Structure formats: structure tokens, C-alpha cells
Amino acid sequence: MEYVVITFLCLGILLYFLLGGADFGAGIIELFTSAKNRSRTRKTMYHAIGPVWEANHMWLIIAIVILFVGFPHIYTTMSVYLHIPLLIMLIGIIARGTAFVFRHYDAIKDDMHWLYNRIFRYSSFITPLFLGIIAGSVISGHIDTNANDFLSAYVFSWLNWFSVSVGLFTVSLCGFLAAIYLIGETDDGHDKRRFIKKAEYMNIAAVIFGAMVFIAAAIDKIPLIDWVFKNPVGLSAIVLASLSLILLWYLLLKGKTKVLRILAGFQVSMILLAISYAHFPNFIRLKNGDTISLFNTLGPEKTIYSLGLALLLGSVLILPFLGYLFYKFQKKEE
């Protein structure tokens, strides 16, 4: 049953990045849109994510619950040594959701809307930034469980070039996903061209920040190159990601937008696979060289069995209705 739990954990993280990340990316696209086009972008974005944006947080909740119940040592280590970026990320999620609701459903149209818009845009940037910082921190080897001072224990564990580079890379990927997704949400030629241009810019940013990640990893002696290029799975994933990107832009130039979302999601999935496969099942790398593994930190057997059973039953009950939710609102727009 532990494999069931770990599978749901990995799927939860992946789906939150692909779906929730695209939602954050919509705010990032709006942030980097000129003032004269923001209202058009905002309208397209609202029709795309308005019905389902809150449902996407389900995947984050599932991942947190799995860690809390099934892997308490991992949950405790992250909660203690990464509590600052975790808190900023959660504040960003709350601020973004609150601003999203008030700027669309506020009964009184007053001067407060400029504040709602800014909170939404900046929290859409900050939240995936710190999500990436947290992801980078757990594999960076900067978490020092033997630290004797506040900065070493709770600040330098995440405030380093590698983690920040991963955070910026995450932001650019979220923006890229959102731009690709939004291309299919409008029939207006001008808006399509704008979103294509945004996707190009975010793609360039992803390449730049991706290079920064490898440079920072080399400086910090993190074996990222070995993880990605020196095992067949990682290398194959990178090749597939590159080929899917080439195919994506080819279809985009041909005006075929039907499968762009699938290709963008596949590309990002391959990037995550390339980075994570080589050091699986290790979840956290510590500064002293030790690792915290998923298999070595499992909760009691009965707990894992109950958790796995709950996840299986929950997926049977929830996933069909979630799929119907996406289908229904997409159908409505058509």
C-alpha cells in the first residue's frame, strides 16, 4: 500500500504544478501585460480559470495530508526548517484567492479594485516563486538540522542561489503554461498573437533561469547534471521534453492549437521527471550529507494502509466529478 500512497503524493505534486501552476501563470501573464491590454487579458483569464481555479488547490491539500499522515518526519523537517517560505507561499495563496474573488464579485465598484488587481498579480508571482524555492531547498542540501543559530537553521536553508533560481524557473514555467493554455481560450486574432508572444517570452525566460539553476547547482556542488544527464530515464525525459517543445512551436506556427496544452503539460512533466527520478526515493537532502527517504520515513503500517485505502476510495468518488466540472465549463464556453 505504500506504493499507492507514494504514487498519489507524486501525482498530487505534479497535477498541482500543471493545473494550479497554470492558474498562477495567468496572474503572471497579467502582471507582464501592458496597461491597455490588461482588461482584455483579465477577461480571457477569468473565463478560463474562473470556474475551476479553487478546485486546483485540492492537489496541494492532498500532498500536504499525505506528508502529514504518511511521512511525518518529512513533514516535520519541512515545517520547521522551511517554515518561512511555506508561510509566505500560504499567504500568497490566500491573498491571491481573496483578491480574485473581490475583484470579480465585489458588489460595489470603487477605487479598491486597483488594490485587488495588484494583490492578485503580485501574489500570482510570489506564490510559485516560493513554491519553487521550497522545491529547490529540499534537494539542495542546505537544510542544516544541526544548526545552532537562527539564520543557519531557518534562513540559509532556503535563501541561496540554487533555491532562488529554481523559484524563478518555476515562475517562468507557470507563465509558459498559462500562455499556452490561454491561446485556446480566445477566438480573437489579436489576443492569440499576444498570448503567443507571451509564451515565447516565458519560454526564453525558462531557458535563462534553467541555465541559472545548473550554474547554481555546480557552484553548490549539487549533482544536478548527474541526475539529469547521466541516467537513461533523465536523459530520455530531457530529449522528449525538447522534442515536444519543437513540435509545440511547429503546430503553433501552423495554427493548430488543439493539442498545445497536452504538449506543454507533457514537456513540464518530463522536466520534473528528469530532475527527480535519479534521487528518488530520497525526498530531502541535508547539509550533513544524509538524506530523508520516503521509504525510511513511512508511518505505521496500519496508518499507511488506511491512508492508501482512503486515497483509492476518494479518487473513485472525486475524480469523475472533477473531470465533469472541467468538461462542463469548457462545454459551456463552446
UniProtKB/TrEMBL annotation:
InterPro entries to which the protein is assigned, alphabetical: Cyt-d_oxidase_su2
Membrane topology category: Multi-pass membrane protein
Keyword annotations from UniProtKB, A to Z: Cell membrane, Membrane, Transmembrane, Transmembrane helix
Regions that span the bilayer: 6-32, 53-74, 80-102, 122-141, 161-183, 204-222, 234-252, 259-280, 304-327
UniProt keyword Cell membrane, yes or no: yes
Annotated localization: Cell membrane
GO biological process terms held by the UniProt record: aerobic electron transport chain
Top-level division of the source organism's lineage: Bacteria
One annotated GO molecular function: electron transfer activity
Entry GO CC: cytochrome complex; plasma membrane
PANTHER family: CYTOCHROME BD2 SUBUNIT II
Entry's family note: Belongs to the cytochrome ubiquinol oxidase subunit 2 family.
Name of the protein: Cytochrome d ubiquinol oxidase subunit II
The species this protein was found in: Pedobacter endophyticus
